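Tutorial sheet, problem 5. The two components below are modelled jointly, 796 residues in total.
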Amino acid sequence: MINPDRFLSDLHTLRSFGASGVGKGVIRPAFSDADIAAREWLMQQMAEAGLTVQVDPVGSVWGLAQAPSLLLGSHTDSQPEGGWLDGALGVIAALEIARSAQQDRGAPVSVVSFQDEEGRFGVTTGSTVWSGTVSLDTADHFLDREGVSFSQARQNMAHLAGDWVDPRQFTGFIEMHIEQGPWLDAAGDTIGVVTDIVGIRDMRVTLTGEQNHAGTTPMHMRKDAFQALSAFNTRLSLAFEGVVAPATVWTIGQVNLHPNASSIVPGKVTFSMQWRDSSTGRLAEMDKIIRQVAMDVAREHGMVLNFGDMLGLEPVAMDTRLRHALTEAAETNAPGQWREMPSGALHDATNVAQQMPVAMLFVPSIGGISHAFEEDTDEADLVVGLQVLADAVARLTN
Amino acid sequence: MINPDRFLSDLHTLRSFGASGVGKGVIRPAFSDADIAAREWLMQQMAEAGLTVQVDPVGSVWGLAQAPSLLLGSHTDSQPEGGWLDGALGVIAALEIARSAQQDRGAPVSVVSFQDEEGRFGVTTGSTVWSGTVSLDTADHFLDREGVSFSQARQNMAHLAGDWVDPRQFTGFIEMHIEQGPWLDAAGDTIGVVTDIVGIRDMRVTLTGEQNHAGTTPMHMRKDAFQALSAFNTRLSLAFEGVVAPATVWTIGQVNLHPNASSIVPGKVTFSMQWRDSSTGRLAEMDKIIRQVAMDVAREHGMVLNFGDMLGLEPVAMDTRLRHALTEAAETNAPGQWREMPSGALHDATNVAQQMPVAMLFVPSIGGISHAFEEDTDEADLVVGLQVLADAVARLTN
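Model answer (structure tokens):
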């Protein structure tokens, strides 16, 4: 039988590794001392639970049950300033369910804590390399903000590292996670069963006009890169009307103006353009609109336009069978208090889907806050999440 | 008699101090080795011309004729990447006219090259302090971008520095300068007689919304600081219609978004808002509109709004008598090829106007380009400028 108290106690113990001293905040980025200590503690818990412990070459920690098994888990590394739940929740829920399965001689359940989901090296590194999306050789050249390479960083866990884990031993993967958004909290729901992980498009756009004196250049003769950016932004929102869905999002989150001085008409701007949606068709349609609007604005404002490379992550639909088990378990454990929803955030499940059927469930984030010390979820909701996950596993393995 | 060849030759000699190696570009910022060498060369030319040379405590170089005299000049320091003319033109034209006055025993003309007009220390430092607008104690704490104080920098010229020059010996000041804008070049005119130096208002505005995950935060729940800035910018242009004049300018030249990452909804933006006009009333009306639009947008977008301190430089009307001498000289030397116009750029004359009547004349900037290595003016136009200035001086002193 799963033990909610033991589950909550383990979550709080894990929080002690890298506890920030601010609320329930955690500072446990990938390969930091706190992260490695947390992983060593996790390995011990896995071993005590009767699982076979293995660390793969990139530092992901595995607790393996007899094959074939279901795989549950997430990640225990945090953002540079993160919360106590994020990926930790999915790992500890997995540990509790796998442990009780061992104790009860139930169907085998394996556990994983992927390394660097939070992207110290730019991507969900551990699951990206394990799933074969990116080669280890390529990943080894990824740099963090301080210029440390992934290759150097993983030396910190070289004394623990063994071989790769064969994905063919797993029948499917379920990841429990906090929502990191406001929908469940706002609706008063306890459980979200994920339909899709949205696809992401991300690129840099550069508009080059003419740098000039902000006193002597008349308005009608300016080629002001900021004005062009502002026009692009306004026009884009209008052009998206009737195309986007309620859950579609787009963001200009990074703006670098040149030379960025109050007395100079800015001659150049480079900005990020990111959009997310669960439909590949809609992502492509938005791409077309973005490029058309940018070209129109560039022409009207006398700008030279450059598009950078586009990062594309395809939407991932959750597996029907796994998802069905979750919806049934949700209705049993939280009747009328759950909903189906897309995941706007990227997760390890995106990569794992390359190798096996995947599904996800969410619990509410209070105020929609995550990636911050303030991140939290009512402990009663955490327990319902554990119960739904355990129930779904039972439905899938009985 | 003024000697155009000697004038052009001196201009080219001055260019050799800090010649950038790119076209006629110059790298001669205030108190650099090149700037001090150029000032020492200028002191020698002044002495040879029969003027009494004096360097004041802030490094401005004076060539004094018998009092009372007219004062001509500008500055010989350049932007970090500047052109060969900018302030240098006005100083060398002044030198040629003062020299020929000494040779011809004409009415006395004095010369000045103010220090740090280009604002290494944030303002037109030399003339600002000399005119009493800012005290030396205050200016001594100004820092350049590398954190060097004005006090430290002027030690580089301490071996040359003497006492302050008494402004009461001058009957008026005329500054010749390149236009630094496109009007004369576009119209095919040779001379601009300045009516006013426009006033400037400059402040920082901060909009604080809510930093959030760019995947999980729905569009309708965002408090996106960039979206608020873009809305402010669009709305402001509309609100200015019917208020601004053709020569009015406004600029958002600096934008700092926080945290400036593609996957994060920006929670905060600080941006510069600068506007210029020759009417104090219009500057105030624009100020009111800016604050109102910012408040409206902040309210609608759920932003906290903060206005920084406002830098205010009042418009300066040129002296009627000096200006009249320039228009008569312009019509004589460039009949039908001159115009009256405001100066959109700030000049040393703004500060000197605190102490005496001032006037300015412009020659064309090819393509309107300045503060760049490409800055240039046809040498024939430079000579016409010299002749107009000399003629105006003659009209004022005969």
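Marking note: DSSP finds twelve helices and 17 strands in chain A. Full credit if you identified this.
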